[in-house]
Write a structure and sequence with these properties.
A hairpin with a 4-residue loop joins strand 5 and strand 6. 22% of the residues lie in helices and 34% in strands. By secondary structure, the chain is α+β, with helices and mostly antiparallel strands.
């Protein structure tokens, strides 16, 4: 299997721009989770000091994962301390529930 998972955590206000950029480049599927956390910057106005962000997960062909990660970084960047991060991890297997088969490279698109 030649698939990797791109996980990005970024400011929720950048979500629309990130979604539009991914769709323009042929990425059709991603999963979103609202998350809260603390990194180098914390919200001193909030009682628990946690920042609201979005976590996005995208499965991609290995040869496209770095380009997708860079696209997210470029699109989500606003030069603020609390912008988040992007990571890429290998996927050993990925199974589609709807047709009970393993995913293949051809299931994932990206147009540079």
């Amino acid at each position: 299997m030649n698939i990797q998972k791109v996980t990005a955590i970024f400011d929720e206000f950048r979500l629309k721009d990130v979604e539009e950029a991914l769709i323009r480049h042929g990425v059709k599927g991603f999963t979103l989770h609202p998350v809260r956390g603390r990194g180098g910057y914390f919200d001193s106005f909030n009682e628990n000091h946690l920042i609201k962000h979005i976590q996005m997960e995208i499965y991609a062909r290995s040869e496209h994962a770095n380009n997708i990660a860079q696209l997210i970084v470029e699109t989500a960047h606003v030069n603020a301390d609390s912008e988040g991060l992007v990571c890429i991890i290998p996927v050993n297997d990925l199974l589609w529930i709807h047709d009970k088969r393993s995913a293949t490279d051809s299931d994932f698109q990206f147009h540079p």
